[in-house]
Amino acid sequence: PRVIFSGIQPTGIPHLGNYLGALRLWATLQNEEDEQTELFFSIVDLHAITIKQNAKQLQQWRKEMLASLYAVGLSPERSTIFYQSSVPQHSELMWILSCTASMGYLSRMTQWKSKLALPNNTSPLDPSPTGKAALKLGLFSYPVLQAADILLYRTTHVPVGEDQAQHLEFARELAIGFNHVYAPNSKGNVPLLVPPQIIMSPAKRVMSLTNPTKKMSKSDTDEKSRILITDNENVIKKKINRALTDSIEGVSYDREARPGVSNLINLIYHMDESVASSPEELAKEFDGMSLKALKEKVAETVEMHIHDET
Ligand code: ATP
Ligand code: MG
C-alpha cells in the first residue's frame, strides 16, 4: 500500500507557490487515492526554528497553518494532520540517521545557503555571515530531520515542489545507505527503511513577483513578492500590478529571457490547466495583448480560483 507524507513549515500564511506546488496536490491525493493509502501531513515546526523565530509569532503561525490546511480541503477524517514537535520520534530518528549522514553530501545542499542570506540569520558579531562561523548546525542538518520525517512512516511517496527535490534525493540515498550498513541481507523483501519517491506537481516552481529569478517564499522579507491564499481581490490586484516584468512589447513565453512575464503566464496556466495545453500555447493565445491586460487577466484568474478552492 502507498504511504504519502509531506510537510509545510509554519512560517507564515501559505502563498500561491505553496498552494500550486504542494497543498492543492495534497488535497487531490487525499481525495483520489484509494482507501488503503495512508496520508500524513505535518506542520513542521521543528524545521521552522532552523532560523530565528519569535515564540508568540510562531505559536500564531502554527494555528494559522492548521487553519490553512483545513481551508484547502484537507480533512482529519481521511488524513493524519499533526504538528511535527508533538511526535518526538522525528527527533529521535534524526539522531540515528545523523550517525550515517555525510557532511560532504549535506554541504552540497543549496537551501541552507539561501536561508543564510535572510536578515535575521546574520550575526552582528560575524563579519562574514555566509562563513562557517555563522552557520547554525540545525540549518545545516535540516535535511536529516526532513529525511527522518519521511522515513518514520515508511513513506512511499512525497508530494513537494521542485525546491525540495534535492532534499528528497538525499533522503532516498540516506535510506539506501542505512539499509546497506544495517540490513545488507534483506534484499528486496522488507527493507529496514523505505526509500521514498517524489511526486512533483506540474506547478513545481512558482517565482517571486518582485524578483522572478527567485522562487516565491514565505520567508522572503518583501510581502509584495507573494500572494497569500487569504489575500482579497484588491490586494491580489495590487500585488500583480506591481509584479516585475520587462520592457519587451507583448506577451511571449520564455522563462530565461522573460522570467516575470513567464511566471504570470504560468500562474494562469497552473490555476486552471484546462485553459490550454501548455504555457507556450497559452502565451500564443495572448499574442498582441499588453502586459497591463495580461496582469488584469492574471489577477482575475487567481482571485477566482483561490476563492473557489480555499
Ligand atoms: P520558507 O520560506 O519558510 O522556507 P516556503 O515558502 O519555502 O517557506 P515551505 O514550508 O518550505 O514553504 O514548503 C512547503 C511546500 O511548498 C514544499 O513542498 C515546497 O516544495 C513547496 N513550495 C514552496 N515554495 C514553492 C514555490 N515557489 N513553488 C512551488 N512549490 C513551492
Ligand atoms: Mg522552504
UniProtKB/TrEMBL annotation:
The question of whether Chaperone is a record keyword is answered with no
The molecular function GO annotations come to: ATP binding; transferase activity; tryptophan-tRNA ligase activity
Give the family from UniProt.
Belongs to the class-I aminoacyl-tRNA synthetase family.
The name this protein goes by in its record: Tryptophan--tRNA ligase, mitochondrial
According to its UniProt record, the EC number is 6.1.1.2
User: A single GO CC term, please?
Assistant: mitochondrial matrix
* UniProt-listed GO biological process terms: mitochondrial tryptophanyl-tRNA aminoacylation
Which species does the entry assign this protein to?
A: Lojkania enalia
Q: Which Pfam families match?
A: tRNA-synt_1b
UniProt subcellular location: Mitochondrion matrix
Q: What is the lineage of its organism?
A: Eukaryota, Fungi, Dikarya, Ascomycota, Pezizomycotina
The main location class comes to mitochondrion
The EC category is ligase
